[in-house]
Amino acid sequence: MSGGRGTVTSDVTGARPGRRAPDRPGAAARLRAPLATRGRALHAGAWWLWALGLATAASRTTNPLLLGLLIGVAGYVVAARRSDAPWARSYGAFVKLGLVVLAIRLVFAFVLGSPVPGTHILVTLPEVPLPDWARGVRIGGRVTAEGMLFALYDGLKLATLLICVGAANALANPARLLKSLPGALYEAGVAVVVAMTFAPNLVADVQRLRAARRLRGRADRGVKALLQVGLPVLEGALERSVALAAAMDARGYGRTAQVPRAVRHTTTALTLGGLLGICAGTYGLLAAQGAGYGLPVLAAGLAAALTGLWLGGRRSVRTRYRPDRWGVRAWLVAGSGVAVAALMIWAGSYAPAALHPPAVPLTAPELPLWPALSVLAGLIPAFVAPVPANSPAKPAKPEKAAKPETQRPQRPKDPQDPKDPQNLKERTT
User: Do the beta carbons of residue 281 and residue 295 sit within 8 Å?
Assistant: First the structure.
């Protein structure tokens, strides 16, 4: 209400004059991904399950459009949810490695030929005669468009697999992944994590040394610069190895509890047998001929491996401080990757020609609708995974309302103030 002099104004919210009503988060703010903190960070295993799901989907098709879509999904999620940690910078190196693999596959098909027959001859190279024991191998000869197209499809699939693995390396924290391993696999997990962090640390060292050379006004490209950077990189790797060995020894690496011999043998047999069953079942699921026995063998291998890990955990005497939680967001991230793999495997039963476009005869590949939509399910982590604190994709904060401008009360003039221009004028007259 408003009135004349001495009236008080109030708004419909009932807030007091001069005070802003508290902001209430809307539905969009509640659905927005939270900021990743120590307690709300996504489980590292969820990122690996998501990436392995994309890699499984890539292994089931040679369609370049679907493979390009998988690469785009992985790249978008990495750009939206990676941090500026050293291991997060390795994604570009894996992309370059995938391009190198693709180029090598094309060069081999160009020089050594391709098993795919073709009628569209691009060029005829001089053929090198080989002895009888090398029958079936040729160097040079006719280079056909069908053979090069088949090599392009095959090399692009290998490059996509590498890029999916690189996405997992860029998103998952290796230290937190090691922290989540079962006690029976801790010692082997240390070796695996150290091997996984070698490539990211190597890339970080090369970038750091190249930046130092640029600051000193030296060339950072070329063979000579690469040789001069190689020695400091090896020295840094050796220093990290020594520091890691000292840290592992200080933390009691390799110490185990007293367990009976029969339990140790049973644990070893169950773990190794289970891992072999998992490998055989996974191969059966990935191969086109083993879909019938792949799932039962995989289930039996998982059961044996979990039993062996449970028994082997009794030998471990280490404890966990603040273990990572597998929450709802971790289930969504891992489930999106598993869903992409399952839908792509199912698509092989009703659209095999769309997943594997033929190289003979030469035809343009088509983008199948339902497999493409299933690949887009891999974008879910870009919206539900917590945003890293040092990521450019931080959640937007609500803008604060501007405070009303208030005028400061003026001090009454002092008739004896010598700095007042009016008093100075009267004094001079």
Answer: yes
